[in-house]
Specification:
This protein has three helices and seven strands. By secondary structure, the protein is of the alpha+beta class. The chain starts with 10 loop residues before the first strand and ends with a helix.
C-alpha cells in the first residue's frame, strides 16, 4: 500500500495492539474502518462514553484513498481542531501525531462526562435536601 501523503510504500506497525499501516517517511498511519474505534477504545472508557458523532465539517480532501484511489474526505474529528481524512468505504488517514490527539480527545470526553454526571448527582442531592425541608 502506498502512502496517500507522499506515495511511499507503507509498512505495518503495532499501534497499541492494533496492526496499522505506517509511512516511515511522513509518520502517517492508515487505519482500516474498524481500527479507529479500536484506537479510541485504548483509552479507559466505555462504549457509551465514546458514542458520538465523529465527522464534523467534512469537505473534499487533497488525499486519495490508498485502497481504491477515490478522493477522501477531510473532517474535524469530533468537532475538535484535529483534521483527519477518511474513505467511507475503507478507512482513516491520520497524519503523524494525530493518533495521540485522538486518544487525548477521548480521554477529555470521559473526564467531561464524569464531571457532568457528578454535577447532575450533586444537583439532585441538593433538590432532594430541599424537598425534605418542606
Amino acid at each position: 500500500m502506498k502512502c496517500p501523503r507522499d506515495g511511499t510504500d507503507m509498512g505495518t506497525e503495532n499501534l497499541r495492539g492494533i496492526e496499522v499501516e505506517l509511512c516511515q517517511k511522513c509518520g502517517g498511519r492508515w487505519l482500516d474502518l474498524d481500527e479507529l474505534g479500536k484506537l479510541e477504545a485504548t483509552v479507559t472508557s466505555t462504549e457509551d462514553e465514546r458514542r458520538a458523532t465523529i465527522i464534523y465539517g467534512d469537505h473534499a480532501s487533497e488525499l486519495k484513498c490508498p485502497v481504491c484511489e477515490k478522493q477522501m474526505v477531510t473532517f474535524d474529528y469530533r468537532a475538535h481542531a484535529v483534521e483527519l481524512d477518511t474513505c467511507p468505504d475503507h478507512g482513516w488517514w491520520l497524519d503523524n501525531g494525530e493518533e495521540g490527539r485522538v486518544r487525548d480527545i477521548i480521554a477529555e470526553r470521559v473526564r467531561d462526562l464524569d464531571r457532568s454526571a457528578g454535577a447532575e448527582a450533586g444537583w439532585h442531592s441538593f433538590l432532594g435536601a430541599l424537598n425534605k425541608k418542606k
